[in-house]
Amino acid sequence: MEGDCLSCMKYLMFLFNFFIFLGGACLLGVGIWVIVDPTGFREIVAANPLLFTGAYIMLAMGAMLFLLGFLGCCGAIRENKCLLLFFFLFILLIFLVELSAAILAFIFRENLTREFFTKELKKHYLRNNDTDVFSSTWNSVMITFACCGVNGPEDFEAIPHLAHSSLEKVTPEACCQRELQSREGMFVDKEACLRGIERFQNQQ
Could you say which of 108, 129, 145 is where a domain stops? Predict the structure, then answer.
């Protein structure tokens, strides 16, 4: 009976750590993508020290979980005391890192709100000015994810439109629906979108 119980615990630990291994791999992949992505996240992350730190914390956490899952899987299957010792040391280290992250998130909580991002957007966004890193990055993100601003098209009501763009009253071009969500994608109806007809705008 004792042998069966230990065998069951061994395989449960293997299964549990296999999911940690997969989660760490996913987190590591997302962290790498955010940092090296050519469509705009790199500029947003680089422009905000808090996001810059967060991206590298996510990358580090992904790598640690990946290694943790690997050590746990190997340690459980082989019943290796050394690997299991490293496994529990990693768990302690991750707990300390998470505690630090929670403290930082509490201290900088005002920089993680929807209102903060909306205020930054209204303050710095220059619509279709692709020479401005902030505006170009926002446009890339909105086109890629078929979204518009932080809350929706209403975020742009306080942003004056460019003098040479009389057609564009409120909604920037990046908020217009496209057949393919990329800069090369054809607009569904650009003129109707810029006139404010909601069914041709990205609303999320």
Answer: 108
Q: Which domain holds residue 3?
A: 1-108
Residues in the chain: 204
Among 50, 84, 108, residue at a domain's last position: 108
Q: What does the DSSP assignment read for 65-129?
A: HHHHHHHHHHHHHHT-HHHHHHHHHHHHHHHHHHHHHHHHHHHTGGGGSHHHHHHHHHHH--TT-
Cα 78 from Cα 192, distance rounded (Å): 65
Single out the residue of 102, 35, 96 nearest to residue 64, CA to CA: 96
Residues contacting 173, CB < 8 A, separation 6+: 127, 128, 139, 190, 193, 194
Are both 49 and 145 inside the same structural domain?
no
Residue identified by tokens 């900088």 is: 108
CA-based Rg of the chain, rounded to a whole angstrom? 23
Task: Encode pLDDT of 31-67 as tens digits.
Answer: 787 777 655 556 666 665 556 677 777 888 888 888 8
Residue closest to 169 by CA, chosen among 159, 178, 155, 184: 159
Residues 91 and 10 in one domain: yes
